[in-house]
Batch of 2 targets.
Target 1
Amino acid sequence: MAVLKIENVSKIFQGGTTAVDDLSLEVSDGELVCLLGPSGSGKSTLLRMVGGFERPTQGKIFIDEADITDQWPERRPTAMVFQSHALWSHMNVFKNVAFGLRLRGLPAAEIRQNVEGVLEMVGLAGYGKRMIHQLSGGQQQRVALARSLVLEPKILLLDEPFASLDQHLRERLREEVRDIQQRLKITTLFVTHGQDEALSMADRIVVMRDGRTEQIGRPDAVYRKPLTPFVAGFIGTMNLVEGQVMRGAFTRAGIRVPLPVADGPATLAVRPEALDLIAAEPGQAQVHRITDFGTHGIVDLELSDGTRLKSMATQPNALRPGQGVDLVPRALTVYRESREIYRDVHD
Ligand SMILES: Nc1ncnc2c1ncn2[C@@H]1O[C@H](COP(=O)(O)OP(=O)(O)OP(=O)(O)O)[C@@H](O)[C@H]1O
């Protein structure tokens, strides 16, 4: 049970790269916050500073009001699970998990009880005597998780822990980790590239860009109300169309969408599931391709200037490639100079 507070933290590496730029964030007790962003946006550096593996150039980090900014990693009440699990291959599972408790000098009986408890929690009861190389990738990642959890950290730090696993296993482990995290109520900071991972696991998502936070919010808010075109384009599939607003309507290559905003350049953002199609000849766009996923279809559309858009259709068979359609957005957001200027999203 702990609160993590990151206050105006920056990290400038030797050579001048600013990896994290004056970032502040508070993670509440028992909350799971995902750091999401493109490669190089500073996610791992931020996590490593919380774990004590990098020193901030500026700013402070607190756990429950205690300033830990200059504390050694092993003295911090944090535990980190890395993508490469860094297990000791010459030790069996039990010894790997018990290692941290041995360093702490716990009595053998207590170590045994704690290790067995945590192995059961991660689904590895009875695996204590197995050597690491006798385990699958997913099982190894479970050992890495157990090794962190057994230390009963106040803050759990996860750096893309499932990145090397196949999708099926990743989804399963994601659910299990979320269950364990909620059961133990561990305050958790989680780095991921995967928006699905962030949307399905997080209490809140921090979208990072160039070492700064672009948006912080609950998954549904970040998905439904992205504050900038960058967030809109980064989370989920989004049609982003640049055009002009003139005399009360957005236009671009045959599209015309009435909008109550001032004239000028604008970027229109519409999710595929919020873009309805009506058959029309010649129509504002042409159907390029239809992909039927069984439960729904994705219709790829082309505007007269070659711009591609996507629409999700529940009855894709009603359409055929080459036919004309008019576009009817049911929800949309409009940006100008990277700021939202209009939103029509039904709650
Ligand atoms: N030890 C280092 N020395 C110099 N520059 C570094 C160092 N570590 C990271 N960087 C730089 O800092 C920036 C942020 O890197 P970081 O690894 O935090 O990004 P990330 O968002 O975690 O990326 P990824 O998703 O690819 O892991 C990058 O430009 C990176 O090249």
Target 2
Amino acid sequence: MIEFKDVSKTFTLGKREVHAVKNVSLTINKGEIFGIIGFSGAGKSTLLRLVNMLERPSSGSVLIQDIDVSKLSAKDLRTRRRNIGMIFQNFNLFNSRTVAGNIAYPLKLAGASKKEINARVTELLNFVGLAEKAKDYPDQLSGGQKQRVGIARALATSPDILICDEATSALDPETTADILKLLKKVNKDLGITILLITHEMHVIQSICDKVAVMEDGEVIESGNVFETFTDPQHTTTQRFIRSVQQDLPSETILKEWHASGGGTLYRVIFKGEITNNPVLSTVTRKHDVDFNIVYGSVRELQERLFGNLIVSFIGEQKQIDIVRNELKTLVDIEEVIVNER
Ligand SMILES: Nc1ncnc2c1ncn2[C@@H]1O[C@H](COP(=O)(O)OP(=O)(O)OP(=O)(O)O)[C@@H](O)[C@H]1O
């Protein structure tokens, strides 16, 4: 559906070159919700601008539905852009137009008749839950309602792709959750592929199927959200994950634990099915070892369970080593090193 093939984008500022996007290759399949996460300046917006054809790549190609959009004429670009809806952090609504007027705008541009426009606007107002606000102006709306108008407007021309540029970053947590729910509905009910950029891990966690982590213009890690989230390879990905999930006790507690002779701590990670099995107790009991859960949680991610426990083992060292080796065949287990972050 959207394919980045070894895409780079370099800006020239006087004598200085800024490599905003470097050799990015990514595939976003039809029907996916794909999130791109990165800190400020990572290159996320530039990547989006390459998809909605506001920028052309310096090298490589961007394919949308198998068409290389970097090679399209200005006229073809305008037509193809109608196939891509976009919503923004600051909503970008016309304050001088009513809610209905904002939603009607892209339809007017596309040359739809008055009758068609009225029917479509009513349908979209119902879809986003704003039927009563048709005649209001954006200034009379809350942030969440403004973003609903933004979504309705983006959907007006029935696009196949919706691009979300930090769409919930200006909203409070409760409103963010409502908007994310609406985006999920857009994806599920209308089959629209969603590409979103964000610096907020919880957005990725809540609705995305796939994620790509960007840093300094490069994609440093990408894949299915569950796999990436439960087994992050890159320290930047680990930082994002820690922003939503405290997976270790604080350093103070860890130091106190060791100072009081608490012994070695292990992080045990359970993914999916295995979470339902009493693996820890079965293995430890078999080898005459006890265990103590010091810290941890079991969470749900993409409808699968994911457990992260910090445990200590009590027993003879030889037996503990056997337990550790046996557990290694069933779950992820690693020693917790103090000062590891
Ligand atoms: N038109 C431009 N001219 C020159 N440099 C640019 C231009 N657009 C982006 N850049 C530079 O490219 C790099 C990536 O910027 P980009 O806006 O894509 O990052 P971002 O991850 O979206 O950051 P943010 O979340 O802060 O918007 C930055 O160093 C930025 O200054």
